[in-house]
Amino acid sequence: MISLLIVDDEKIIRRGLQSVIERQFPNLFSYRFAENGQEALELLRQEPADMMFTDIRMPIMDGIELLEQLQDHPVKPEAVLLSGYNDFVYAQKAIRCAVKDYLIKPVKREELFAVLERLILDIRMREERADTAGEEARLVAAELVTLHLTQKDVGDAITPNKAGLSWLDAGYTLGLLTRRGEGAQASRADAAAFRNQITELLQGHMDWMLTRDGTGGTILIARDPVMFYQLAERWRLSGTESQLRIAISDSVQGIEQIRWAYSQAKQTLKYGILLPELDVLEHNGISERNERHVVPVELIRRIMNFIGLGRGDEIKQLLDQILDIRMISSCEIGYLERISQLLNEEVFDKLFGIYGYKVLGLLRSHAHVGHIGNYDRFEDYYTAVEQLLGSLDRFIQDRREKAPTEQHTMQKVVAYLQTHYADDLNMAVVSNHFSLNYSYFSHAFQEYSGESFSNYVRRLRLGKAKELLEYSDLKVYEISEQVGFENVKHFTRIFKDTEGITALEFRNQRRQKYE
């Protein structure tokens, strides 16, 4: 609402103006009243006003003196003079005091409303300019912090003092803010909405700022570390479904320490998987953990040896030793990160190297297992690893049992192709002929022959064509048709691309050997 102060020594005029204005502009103004200039000054010292209507002739302090006294005030209202005297001298003095308008009593409604509409527009434009300036200042401050995080040399064009960040010199704490389950998948729109929500919850607090870390992460910098706990509590009370997680640095001083504080918060955030019950994780609470424990490399390699042998119980026992929560909880988070990395390198990556596309579906469906940062709770990570190992064990065991039968079937397929190469062949026709699943047939054929079905058939047909070119007098188009190419143009192009010469050149070269 717009605050309006009406200054007049006659109550009937004060209340009359309020009544007229309220009917024309309902619920737009909040009103205060003063009987003279001295009383108006006291009210304005307590709380500024957006707009002021003041009479000129009043006891104790008149309207002109009131305006003169207000020239030294940091926040001055938009002033309109009221007078029963059409006196040019008063008007001159009012102009010198930057009065916005001058109304003669009795005030005409049309003139009053015209003045109010003009002043309302001025006030709204001033508010917009102030909001824009404030937003620009916040953006400059946020950009300065982001620059310090992402660049080694930010120059001195913008300083903390210019950006309104001088309070950082007195000490501050940096917090990295996330929502559980968000991972790194949040869109820009989601991240912006998240920051807006945080901003609303922090209304009323002093000396804080919200910014980005250069990779989409949200950073809160606050002078008082208690603010992080207050924010976590307000988030819980807001009824938001996702849980807010905050990782905070130790207290540091000066913008030069931003990177150090950020690295502490980023490292601290990793411990959320081991401390899921905490909304706020403090760096000083995790900095004393054991960094020297030896990672169980041999146990991880032993799991790889057991995969596919039907020794699921032994795999489970090994996994319990490797991911022993008692040991992991006492160690620095790098211990668990190294275990996760070795499971990827020594088990999952090696199995993919051996079985390729056949296990790709399993590994893709469990892609989250590759990084502990994808999990909010250690129990969830353990379960995901256990399930993936079980799936791989069963899959590879089943593959080994089926291998002899599969190889015999592929031998039949190759024999069939050797006989029917000139037919209208495609993978769907052949897989149906042998009553095999299309996808399974594609994988099995490539594993057996070392090349794809289409490449094998093309190579087979070209081999037959070269025999006919060398030992028969058939025309090129006749050979093309006999070996199964769809047309001679396609055949000549494939032949030239494969052999480097045309079919006729090939025939001439071969026949020269017999002359």
TrEMBL record:
Q: Where would I find the HTH araC/xylS-type domain in this sequence?
A: 411-509
4-aspartylphosphate: residues bearing it:
D55
Q: Which GO terms describe its molecular function?
A: DNA-binding transcription factor activity; sequence-specific DNA binding
The cross-references to Pfam families, in alphabetical order and at most eight, read: HTH_18, Response_reg
Q: Which GO terms describe its biological process?
A: phosphorelay signal transduction system
Q: Which UniProt keywords apply?
A: DNA-binding, Phosphoprotein, Transcription, Transcription regulation
Residue ranges annotated for the Response regulatory domain, each copy included: 3-120
Name the domain of life this protein comes from: Bacteria
Instruction: Cite the InterPro entries for this sequence.
Output: CheY-like_superfamily, Homeodomain-like_sf, HTH_AraC, HTH_AraC-typ_CS, Sig_transdc_resp-reg_receiver
- The name on file for this protein is YesN5
- Origin species, per record, is Paenibacillus mucilaginosus 3016
Q: What is the lineage of its organism?
A: Bacteria, Bacillati, Bacillota, Bacilli, Bacillales
